[in-house]
Amino acid sequence: MDRPSSIDASALTAALHGDPEVLDVHLALVERDVISDGLAVKIHCHCLTVDANGRVQPHRLAEFMRNVVADYAISRSKMASAKARDLRFNSTEAVTGLVEQARRSFTDLALTGEGGEMLLFLLAERFLKLPQIICKMDLKTDARVHYHGADGVYAGVSESGVLKLYWGESKVYGDAGDAIAACLTSLAPFLIEAEHEAADRERDLILLSDHADLGDPLMTEALKGYFDTSSIMSKRVQHCGVALVGFDAGFYPNHPVKAVAEDLATAARKGLESWRASIGRRLATEQLEQVEIELFCLPLPSAEGFRTAFLTAMGLTE
């Protein structure tokens, strides 16, 4: 069978992880595809969902994230081999081992940003339908060291067959303006630097040429062709961005006051006016106005509380 030379949308769809509807249990969509004149960015805003008792549940969100840790941190091919071995021997040993390996790859540092990176993964794959194409956590050699480079790499494809490479970045801070500024400043080099060996994205491109994985061997080889600088396919790559900014929002009521989902959505839409203005200013500063970026705004009851909930769910706190 001839090897395909390019990637089509069906190959990327087949590589997606998980049930997208489960995301709606924990995150409520407020607005999507918010645009500003003269900018190529699309802004999406979610809030935490409200249960029948008028409560938001960041710990349930963190537990959901823990349950998909292997999807994020283990390559598709490695997981497929483990599933096949378990099926052969009527066991769960191999998959359980990979889940534990995935969990241990996360750091227990109090200021870790890995929770934000996982949320970005979930929103990119389950909301935008952009599959992650390399598991960088699987390449870590020290659990207490954050992996350098982009927070994730995701892929889409245009109707003309151009590979849209989405470089990921996430920041979860107390202040919205600080999160937006830090996120877009970190993301900018991956999007606007000229192609050369000293570019910030070059190391990740080398990793992609070796470790990109769509699960299907033929499609994976076709994907790797886009990162081969000796191939004409390397000229058919468009650099895009996918970003998450999480931050404190004062409109979540304190216990025992009950939250009302409609009130949270109204407050978030009002806040989105100022967040969008901050995003526009920072895009101009970083010269990113004409770069395609999918940007998630996630107002939280507490950024610090979210990090603590994630570490607790992962069993990384004493």
UniProtKB/TrEMBL annotation:
Protein name as catalogued: DUF1837 domain-containing protein
Residue stretches making up the Anti-bacteriophage protein A/HamA C-terminal domain: 36-313
Superkingdom of source: Bacteria
Any Pfam family the entry gives: HamA
Provenance organism: Chelatococcus sambhunathii
